[in-house]
Design brief:
about 425 residues; about 65% helix; two-stranded antiparallel ribbon; globular; mainly alpha; 2 strands
Length: about 425
């Protein structure tokens, strides 16, 4: 494993030691203090780029990202100088600002590889991500059960915990701005925590009290996901617990988890210390899908319809970032007053803004990277959790759109960087 490190850095890893400290601090602060996290991660990225042997421009995994970047920039240049016709007028500033959602992430994908190259590096990152999520769990419980609402701000807005008033609609958001953002983060850490816990039980290296803490931690994640009332969060939790248990445990361990976890949830939910309303009433309604004839009554169907129609009318360079809310306000019929800001699907969002080829190139690369890790031999439980964590964010964004929250996009590309490091030769 030390050979891998020597491939990355040309000296005795002095840069790596310093950079990893900033990297770990950035990961720890990410959910609760994203601005401070971004500063720390930026420093780690700069340090991680110094004295590298693996040249940024020679890494073949970067080639499709170079092409994606070129297509995005070309489309913006042509649109800014009005060399391509747009059906709506777009603010040029918004066009170029949207690139910050993508181009820095492509660089992070390469730069953070040096901090994730060894299995123990990725295991350390998993532990830090789980520890960083403790405020997410606590804020959610305080918000939902004890009606502690914010927003709470420190340092003139440097740190903001939203803690929205959810008295009208009991959908947990915690320190996030939106229930779906919270559900996406919780779904991601659910996979990491579950595989980490399973590994702890299988290795039998941790004392029983630590195993109990891990068990309670998993339960709190699951409870918080349910309380978000997010259909995507609930389905993601069910999907990945099934995949992880099938991939990591034998029948005996599976039955132990089943017979311990389910009664524990029921005891907690129906405890006299908590109101029976802790069981979300909206879950049943969210899982009742409309019939085919009622699809046109759903705003999501109209969003999807308009997205595809406009994408195929502008297939090469798309319509430009921030154009969708303008177009939907014109074509959305009875839904046009709903203030819809995006296409609610990551693939169609990129295709709408930058063109079909850009979207296909970007997401085929990401899917290929995930697949290459799935078929890798001798995967550890932590490897499986890491793959599932990246997959959960990607799949979540197929049905909703949480990517524009910097916490989600940063952790997504860091997870992809770990997948890249995992298959590095």
């Amino acid at each position: 494993m030390e050979i891998k490190q020597s491939i990355i850095f040309s000296d005795k890893n002095n840069y790596l030691i310093t950079g990893r400290k900033f990297f770990n601090v950035g990961i720890f602060l990410l959910p609760s203090a994203p601005i401070l996290s971004a500063i720390s991660l930026f420093i780690s990225v700069v340090i991680g780029s110094i004295n590298r042997k693996d040249n940024f421009f020679k890494d073949k995994w970067n080639y499709p990202l170079f092409a994606t970047s070129l297509l995005m920039i070309t489309g913006n240049v042509l649109r800014s100088f009005q060399l391509i016709n747009n059906s709506v007028k777009i603010d040029n500033l918004n066009l170029w600002m949207d690139l910050f959602n993508w181009l820095p992430m492509f660089y992070i994908f390469w730069a953070c590889k040096c901090y994730l190259i060894r299995p123990k590096d990725r295991e350390t990152t998993i532990r830090i991500v789980l520890l960083s999520s403790v405020p997410v769990l606590i804020s959610g419980i305080l918000q939902y059960y004890y009606e502690i609402y914010g927003p709470f701000s420190i340092g003139n807005g440097i740190i903001i915990w939203y803690q929205r008033d959810i008295s009208d609609q009991k959908s947990l958001t915690g320190l996030f701005n939106n229930a779906n953002y919270a559900a996406n983060w919780l779904s991601m850490i659910w996979t990491l925590s579950l595989t980490y816990t399973i590994q702890s039980f299988k290795s039998n290296l941790k004392p029983n009290w630590q195993k109990l803490i891990l068990f309670i931690f998993n339960f709190l994640i699951g409870l918080n996901i349910i309380l978000t009332n997010s259909r995507n969060g609930l389905l993601s939790m069910i999907l990945f617990i099934t995949i992880i248990l099938v991939k990591t445990v034998n029948l005996k361990i599976f039955l132990i988890i089943l017979f311990l976890f389910i009664p524990f949830i029921l005891i907690f939910i129906y405890s006299p210390f908590f109101d029976i309303d802790s069981v979300p009433r909206l879950i049943k309604g969210k899982l009742q899908f409309s019939s085919i004839t009622d699809l046109e009554k759903l705003p999501r169907f109209k969003i999807f319809q308009i997205s595809l129609d406009q994408i195929f009318k502008n297939p090469i360079f798309g319509l430009g970032a921030s154009s969708f809310p303008i177009i939907f306000a014109l074509l959305g019929d009875r839904f046009k007053t709903n203030n819809i800001q995006h296409t609610h699907n990551l693939i169609t969002e990129v295709a709408f803004n930058y063109g079909i080829f850009t979207s296909l190139l970007l997401f085929s690369t990401i899917c290929y990277l995930i697949r290459k890790n799935w078929i890798k031999e001798n995967k550890s439980n932590e490897d499986i959790g890491w793959i599932c964590a990246a997959s959960s964010i990607l799949i979540f964004n197929f049905f909703d759109f949480t990517y524009y929250d910097a916490r989600i996009s940063l952790i997504f590309w860091i997870l992809l960087s770990g997948l890249r490091a995992s298959i590095a030769k």
